[in-house]
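Query structure, 357 tokens:
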């Protein structure tokens, strides 16, 4: 169960966001900046569900803050990116299942990720066998890997489904149509709402600098992850349906998807960490800065260790690299519902809900 302090924080973040949104609704200067403001201007009163929907629709590009005439030292002291970021984080914790795990990674992300990776690396290294060859499956049998990783993949997804269902009810979501899903996927794939509303990019890094860097690094991260997932999915189909077990040649789909996806994911996450380190923390939820950085670093470790495993898989480093890479992947799966990874699912739900307006 959530603590009383957590409940108070949610109420406070909602009330502050409502105060700022009411001022924004009266001003309307930022109407064309992103999808948040047209949705704001259709409302007269802001329920808790409305504010949570708007917070998950916000991409924290920060253009509205730098354009606003009512930021501090004005008495209104508007900081909408921060207000919505705090509501957004509180909403994820509020709807997380099981609730006992909510917020743990936000506060102790580095420690949790490192301890999980170290423990799982030791476990996976210690259970390795010695087969007749020098391949992954000589060290860890394929069926054994499936028995370990399939539940670790499916169970977190089921908890996310429960969380998203709670969110969907709170934001008064309607029956979903394929057209709405398609439009939301297009917006997510293009990172449409990171272009600043005018096509010049956003101000995430600097007040006076419009840039598409954050958009491009997000795209590299997203498409890199999807390509890596496609590589695993295709390899599974080849193994079970076509009786074509690994290892695969460089010209095969698993290798092409995996290597290209790993490179994109490494570049994207490294770029996002650099941008996050430079950006003004006061325009985000400072409570979870460390957890967000730890999550991006975890994604970087997943992709980079996978690339090293591909490059050095034929050397004496294979046993350790295999254990370490699988440990990072397993850690990512297990922490998905409680880390920043959940934001992709909530963001897609918010985009679908926005298409229903």
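Result returned for the query:
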């Amino acid at each position: 169960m959530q603590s009383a302090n957590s409940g108070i924080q949610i109420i406070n973040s909602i009330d502050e966001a409502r105060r700022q949104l009411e001022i924004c609704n009266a001003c309307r200067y930022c109407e064309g900046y992103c999808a948040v403001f047209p949705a704001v201007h259709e409302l007269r009163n802001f329920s808790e569900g409305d504010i949570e929907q708007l917070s998950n629709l916000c991409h924290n590009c920060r253009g509205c803050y730098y354009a606003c005439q009512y930021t501090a030292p004005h008495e209104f002291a508007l900081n909408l990116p921060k207000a919505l970021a705090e509501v957004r984080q509180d909403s994820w914790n509020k709807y997380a299942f099981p609730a006992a795990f909510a917020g743990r990674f936000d506060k102790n992300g580095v420690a949790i990720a490192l301890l999980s990776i170290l423990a799982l690396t030791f476990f996976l290294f210690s259970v390795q066998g010695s087969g007749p060859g020098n391949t992954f499956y000589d060290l860890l049998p394929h069926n054994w890997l499936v028995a370990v990783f399939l539940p670790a993949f499916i169970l977190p997804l089921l908890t996310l489904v429960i969380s998203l269902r709670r969110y969907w009810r709170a934001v008064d979501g309607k029956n979903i149509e394929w057209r709405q899903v398609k439009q939301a996927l297009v917006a997510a794939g293009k990172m449409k709402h990171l272009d600043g509303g005018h096509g010049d990019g956003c101000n995430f890094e600097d007040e006076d600098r419009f840039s598409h860097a954050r958009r491009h690094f997000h795209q590299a991260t997203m498409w890199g992850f999807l390509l890596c997932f496609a590589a695993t999915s295709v390899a599974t189909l080849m193994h079970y349906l076509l009786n074509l077990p690994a290892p695969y040649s460089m010209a095969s789909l698993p290798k092409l998807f995996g290597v290209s996806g790993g490179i994109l994911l490494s570049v994207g996450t490294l770029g996002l960490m650099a941008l996050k380190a430079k950006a003004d923390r006061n325009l985000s939820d400072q409570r979870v800065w460390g957890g967000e950085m730890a999550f991006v670093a975890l994604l970087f470790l997943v992709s980079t260790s996978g690339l090293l495993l591909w490059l050095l898989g034929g050397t004496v480093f294979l046993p350790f690299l295999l254990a370490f890479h699988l440990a990072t992947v397993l850690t990512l799966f297990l922490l998905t519902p409680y880390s920043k990874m959940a934001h992709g699912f909530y963001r897609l739900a918010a985009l679908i809900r926005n298409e229903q307006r």
